[in-house]
Amino acid sequence: MIINELPLLGFTLLMQVSVGLTVLFNAFIFWPAFNTRGKISNSLFVIPLIALGFGLLAAFLSFLHIGEPIDIIKSKSIELSHLRFEILSVIIYLIVLGAFLIFTITTKSSWRRIQKILLDLSSLAGLAGLFAMSGFSIQEPYPIWNTLYTPLYFFGTTFLLGSIILLLMISKTGSLSSQRALAGMSALFVVYMLILIPLMINNLENLNIVKEESLSILFSDLLWIFYGRILLLLITLGTLFRSLFVIRSSMTKCSILIWPLSIALIAAFFAELGGRILFFNIVNTISGL
To answer: Quick one: 111 and 190 in the same domain?
Structure first.
């Protein structure tokens, strides 16, 4: 993978984590309390703050990769339509999420309807940005990415990393039901990502143009990354199952939950980083970059 693509890799991963945190926070933490007019612990609002931080860092890395975004937005090139939509969606996502945090910090009420509207809008904008991000890769010049598996992989990474981080952050103050739901969801997303591996390999075999080169790269030079990623996903799955059995009652010590979740997060992150490196290296080698 060439050095120039490191900002792109960092942008995609950080934005996926940011959106995953925001969407799942909205679904598992904010929405139940809002719907029942329950009180949300102030400490939980650090979660969207961290999501905003990840998003801003991702935006900074995108500037290093694409240069000046205003020029792309003004461009009338059809080829840049996905990129323009991605940039606009990310900008809206960050602005609306920032507005949600400002309103939350300045208001004394535990919740307001405007907070829910802002969080819903930021979640939708973030998901739209990820869809555009994956759609930009689904083009004829990139036959390996020009497939349904690209958006499936993008959103899988988003909710896998987002659910583990959110579960780790609510291990002290979150409800047991939210913890169990997130632990179960995280485990299901690991299984989902493992199932995608043979499906994506089968897709490579069906692409006659790049079949031999892709498979030779995957099963020779990058073999250790390929199997390392599978091992890391299995470690993630095992630690998540451990966490699921630990979440039993309010008497559960937080330290018992934090250690397996920390291991799961580290393993999942490096597994997805390895998957992205595989993706980029195969495309770059075939394209002669």
So the answer is: no
Distance CA 275, CA 253 (A): 34
Give the CA distances from residue 12 to residues 20, 32, 40, 83, 272, in Å, rounded to whole numbers and listed in that order.
Answer: 12, 29, 30, 13, 11
- Residues near 97 by beta carbon (within 8 Å), at least 6 away in sequence: 22, 48, 51, 52, 55, 118, 119, 122, 126
User: Phi, psi at residue 67, to the nearest 5°?
Assistant: 85, -135
Range 216-223, long-range pairs (CB < 8 A, 24+ positions)? 217/281, 217/282, 217/285, 217/286, 218/278, 218/282, 221/281, 222/277, 222/278, 222/281, 222/282
Residue with tokens 């250690």: 259
Q: How far apart are CA 203 and CA 144, in angstroms?
A: 8
Average pLDDT, the chain: 79
Query: Does residue 186 share a domain with residue 56?
Result: no
Count structural domains, the chain.
2
Cα dist. 272→36, 73, 120, 266, 277 in Å?
37, 30, 27, 10, 9
Sign, CA dihedral 196-197-199-200, equals: positive
* DSSP line for 229-287: HHHHHHHHHHHHHHHHHH--STTS-HHHHHHHHHHHHHHHHHHHHHHHHHHHHHHHHHH
Verify that 52 and 125 share a domain, yes or no. yes
Do 116 and 27 fall within a single domain? yes
Does a structural domain hold residue 271? yes
Assigned domain for 166 exists: no
Contact 133, 19 (CB under 8 A): no
Both tokens assigned to 176: 């047991």
Structure confidence by residue, pLDDT tens digits, 156-206: 999 999 999 999 888 877 677 788 888 899 999 999 999 988 887 777 666
